């Protein structure tokens, strides 16, 4: 049986590694020009073929993966005269690996169905390091038969794959996942500020938390910036954190959930975003909270 032709749109920090693993596992791959040529040129060197528009990709591909910023970018990629839906192959699958608004996801699923295709959501967890290694986590929303078709391709870049149920559940779970992570970040940043104003150092806090039951993987990557100034420890931007918490707020409203903690977490990232630091990474929230508390930066 011939392998399906795969398309990939969104060759950023995560997408580059994911696409690299797809083509290296032998799948025919189409990629679309990115604002930075390095990723495209690297993938072409590995055997991928470049296309110019989503329409051109849809004409050539059986499964198209998207890994872009969020729902506005996903919607723009699907719709319009040059969008994926304008030339979708019968039965083709679009897989959104972005962190997107579930309300938009369900709307796009209906539009894709009307165009003769299928829409699945498979957002990610972990970092660009795992994307390159092919060991990301994927939380998937898709009909069972669609999941069976896309799973072998997802296995090229994911070590843990959880099929949660129908389309939309992947993005809902991703927002819950990110709420927990960004909640940790806001909590750690504020706790460190209170500790330092109380006469404790970050190193002293770490000496108690790290060996105890309150430590976890997120804590360890967060503290690599605080203690070691390793800016590559968790390369997830403040703007993306703010965006995801705004999506979660929409989800909470849509299901009628009371969410006081989520509002506080979102506001921490909103404040840093508004201060012109949108492109900094999540662990650097500790610097921002320190600064507004009149404390010097970590060193």
Automatic annotation (TrEMBL):
The active site is at 174. The keyword Metal-binding does not apply. Belongs to the HIBADH-related family. One of its GO terms (biological process) is organic acid catabolic process. Residues 168-280 form the 3-hydroxyisobutyrate dehydrogenase-like NAD-binding domain. InterPro entries: 3-OH-isobutyrate_DH-rel_CS, 6-PGluconate_DH-like_C_sf, 6PGD_dom2, 6PGDH_NADP-bd, HIBADH-like_NADP-bd, HIBADH-related, NAD(P)-bd_dom_sf. GO terms for molecular function: NAD binding; NADP binding; oxidoreductase activity. This is 3-hydroxyisobutyrate dehydrogenase-like beta-hydroxyacid dehydrogenase. Keywords: NAD, Oxidoreductase. The keyword Manganese does not apply. Residues 5-165 form the 6-phosphogluconate dehydrogenase NADP-binding domain.
């Amino acid at each position: 049986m011939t392998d399906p032709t795969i398309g990939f749109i969104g060759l950023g920090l995560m997408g580059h590694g994911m696409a690299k693993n797809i083509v290296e596992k032998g799948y025919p791959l189409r990629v679309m020009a990115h604002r930075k040529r390095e990723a495209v040129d690297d993938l072409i060197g590995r055997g991928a073929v470049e296309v110019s528009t989503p329409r051109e990709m849809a004409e050539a591909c059986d499964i198209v993966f998207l890994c872009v910023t969020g729902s506005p970018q996903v919607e723009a990629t699907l719709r319009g005269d040059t969008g994926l839906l304008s030339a979708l192959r019968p039965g083709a699958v679009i897989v959104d690996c972005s962190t997107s608004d579930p309300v938009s996801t369900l709307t796009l699923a209906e539009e894709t169905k009307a165009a003769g295709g299928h829409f699945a959501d498979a957002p990610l967890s972990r970092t660009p390091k795992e994307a390159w290694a092919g060991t990301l986590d994927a939380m998937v929303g898709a009909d069972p038969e669609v999941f069976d078709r896309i799973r072998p391709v997802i296995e090229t870049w994911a070590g843990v794959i959880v099929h949660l149920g129908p389309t939309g559940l992947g993005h809902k779970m991703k927002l819950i996942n990110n709420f927990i992570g960004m909640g940790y970040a806001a909590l750690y940043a504020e706790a460190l500020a209170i500790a330092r104003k109380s006469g404790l150092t970050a190193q002293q806090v770490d000496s108690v938390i790290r060996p105890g039951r309150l430590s976890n993987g997120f804590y360890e990557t967060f503290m690599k910036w605080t203690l070691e100034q390793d800016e590559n420890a968790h390369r997830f931007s403040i703007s993306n954190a703010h965006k995801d918490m705004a999506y979660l707020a929409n989800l909470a409203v849509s299901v009628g959930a009371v969410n006081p903690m989520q509002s506080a977490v979102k506001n921490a990232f909103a404040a840093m975003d508004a201060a012109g630091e949108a492109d900094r990474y999540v662990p650097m929230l500790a610097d921002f909270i320190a600064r507004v508390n009149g404390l010097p930066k970590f060193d």
